Structure formats: C-alpha cells, structure tokens
C-alpha cells in the first residue's frame, strides 16, 4: 500500500483516482476468487468420478500390506512351501511342517491329560479295592506238596522283560510329563540332564524289550488260546469278588486277556518304536507324528494293564508271587486258582510213575533174560 501511494505521489495522480482503484479491487475480489476455485473443484470431482472400485479397494488395503511386510512370508512358510536347502533328505527344503502343531496339541492335550487321569484312576481303584476286599487268601491249608509252575527260563524271560518295561515306563513318562511335573521339582538344569539320559535309555532299551516280548509270545502262546471256560471266569470276576473260584487251566482268563493286550499293544509299540528310533529310512515328519501318537496311546494302555497285573500278582493274591520267584506253587494254591491245570499235572505225574514202573519192570525182565543159566555141580559119578 505504501508503494502504491509513493507511485501515485511521484506521478501526481489525484487522490480521488486512488480511492476509486481501491474500491474497484474490493468489489472485484470475491468474483476473482470464485472464478479461480470453481475449476479446481470441478477437476477434483472429475478425478474422483473416474476412480474404479478396484482401485478404491486396493487403496484401502494398501496400508494393511505395508503395516507388516513379513506377514506374507510367514503365511507362505506355514502353508508348507518348499524352498532351497543345502541339507539333503526328505522335506529338507520345508522350513515348517504345519501338522506338527496338530500333533503337539494331541500329544500335550488329550493323550497326556486323559492318559494321566486314566492311570491315576486305575491306581485309586486298586487301592480302594485292596482296602475293602483285601488280599485273596488261600481257602485251603497248604499241603507242602510243590508243583513246578514256571521253569527257570520262563522266570528269567519274565523278569527280564518286566524290568525293561519298568525302565521304559519311567523314562517315557519323564519325557511326556517332565515339563509339567518334573521341572517344578528338579529345576530346569537338573531336568535337562535327566531328560537327556532318559531319552538315551528309552531309545536303547526299547529293542532289548522287544526281544523279551517276542520270546514270551512264542513260549506262552499255546497256553493263552481262548477256551470255553474263560467266559465263566469273567462272570465270576476271577474269584476276586466273593468266595467262589472259577475253574482255570494253566492260564486263567485274566492272564489270557493280559497276554493278548501285551501281544497287540506290545507289537504296535515295538514297530512304532523302531520307526521313531531310526528316522533314517526316509520317513516324513507326518509319518513320525502319526507313529508317535500310536506309540504313546498303546504305551498308556499297557501301563494301565500292567498296574492290574502287578496288583493281582503281588498284593492281590496270596501265593502268586511265590511261583514267579521260586518257580513252584503249593497244591492248595493250584487247586484254588488253577484246578484244571492241577488235574492235568496229577495225570502227568501218574503217567510218569506208570511209565517209570513199566521201565523198571522192563529193565528187570531184561536183566533176568540176560542172566546166564546156572551150571550144575559135578556129581561123584563123573
């Protein structure tokens, strides 16, 4: 404004002309500004009307993609996309196997949880049964006559397999429940040492357990075939309830049930254990996961069955443990629990005695026939 006034004074412009110019600028300013803004508004409206829905959607999603650029990479990894790896072998180029999360949830979820409850329930049931029922005592007095029930080899293979099974049970449960049960007791460092040893012991004793298991199956298969009186044994609960003792041969129906449980579960545990023990035969991780679930499920079933077997063979029945330690049982025990087997053994003894008597008679007859005839003494006339 000062500049304009200076110019007007320098060129001797009248003040009235200056006032007229100012009034003209004030009157024309709104029209000039409206004329300049209207094309801008029209241009922006035309631009927005030409934008497609796809472009709008992409513009909306663009900030989401740029928020976490690593999300797409992680998504591809979880989908199991195979990449390059210098390591050779099955699935070497696959960074993450998504089914491993499913396996982990099954192992740490239903199998570990329900397995623990089932084992504790079995122990509680056996403890309550012992409290209310007590040990099944002999109803007859001991005779002092002993019968050979288990040979030396049978007892050796039984205790060999049983001790290995106990060792596998301790190490296997330590691996399964170590994080939740042993770490609070031992601490992380002590548990790490024990877990390393438990894994090694479990892996190396597994094949040794298989040899004992297969040997027991071979030598006791003929004694554990189903028979007609097995159903009656189950109906009487094996004599555990009441005073009635059902008939049984060398193996009663309960022992046969344990044998076949050991047969099927033991075979599955052995086969799956070999697959897990030697992962160098091109197994995929999915196969190892399914194998481990079968291995763990059968192991829990065997542990539950073993608890019942141990109870009946020790605290539950008087005289049962004596047979597996010394190999011999009293005739009174055999008559009460295995009467059909006792009759068979008595018959065998009779046949052995008859055979021995016949052999003695044959030997005596042979000695008589082989004896040379006696020579007569010479007479006086000779």
Descriptive account of the structure:
The longest helix is centred in the N-terminal third of the chain and has 35 residues, at 15-49. The protein is mostly helical and 382 residues long. The chain has a two-stranded antiparallel ribbon with strand order 1-2. The chain has helices spanning 2-10, 15-49, 53-67, 71-78, 99-133, 152-186, 188-220, 230-235, 253-277, 285-316, 320-326, 331-337, 339-370; strands at 146-148, 328-330. Helix 7 (188-220) packs across helix 9 (253-277), helix 9 (253-277) packs antiparallel against helix 10 and helix 12 (331-337) crosses helix 13 (339-370). 73% of the residues lie in helices and 2% in strands. It folds into two domains: 2-50; 99-358, Fumarate Reductase Cytochrome B subunit (Up-down Bundle).
């Amino acid at each position: 404004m000062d500049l304009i006034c200076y110019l007007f004074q320098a060129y001797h412009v009248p003040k009235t002309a200056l006032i007229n110019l100012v009034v003209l600028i004030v009157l024309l300013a709104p029209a000039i500004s409206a004329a300049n803004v209207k094309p801008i508004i029209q241009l922006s409206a035309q631009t927005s009307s030409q934008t497609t829905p796809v472009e709008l959607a992409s513009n909306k999603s663009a900030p989401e993609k740029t928020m976490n650029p690593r999300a797409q990479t992680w998504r591809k990894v979880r989908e199991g996309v195979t990449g390059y790896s210098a390591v050779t072998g099955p699935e070497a180029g696959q960074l993450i196997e998504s089914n491993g999360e499913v396996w982990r949830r099954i192992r740490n979820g239903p199998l570990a949880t329900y397995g623990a409850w089932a084992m504790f329930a079995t122990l509680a049931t056996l403890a309550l049964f012992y409290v209310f029922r007590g040990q099944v005592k002999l109803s007859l007095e001991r005779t002092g006559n002993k019968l050979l029930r288990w040979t030396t080899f049978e007892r050796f293979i039984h205790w060999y397999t049983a001790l290995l099974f106990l060792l596998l049970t301790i190490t296997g449960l330590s691996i399964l429940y170590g994080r939740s049960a042993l770490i609070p007791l031992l601490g992380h460092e002590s548990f790490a040492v024990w877990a390393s040893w438990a894994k090694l012991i479990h892996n190396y004793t597994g094949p040794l357990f298989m040899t004992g298991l297969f040997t027991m199956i071979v030598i006791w298969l003929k004694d554990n075939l189903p028979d007609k009186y097995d159903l009656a044994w189950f109906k009487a609960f094996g004599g555990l309830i009441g005073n009635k003792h059902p008939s049984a041969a060398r193996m009663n129906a309960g022992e046969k049930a344990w044998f076949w449980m050991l047969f099927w579960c033991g075979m599955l545990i052995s086969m799956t254990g070999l697959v897990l023990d030697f992962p160098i035969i091109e197994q995929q991780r999915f196969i190892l996961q399914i194998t481990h679930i079968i291995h763990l499920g059968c192991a829990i079933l065997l542990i539950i069955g073993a608890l019942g077997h141990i109870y009946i063979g020790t605290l539950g029945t008087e005289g049962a443990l004596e047979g597996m330690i010394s190999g011999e049982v009293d005739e009174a025990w055999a008559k009460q629990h295995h009467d059909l087997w006792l009759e068979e053994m008595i018959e065998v003894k009779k046949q052995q005695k008859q055979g021995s008597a016949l052999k003695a008679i044959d030997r005596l007859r042979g000695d008589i026939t082989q004896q040379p005839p006696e020579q007569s003494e010479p007479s006086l006339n000779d």
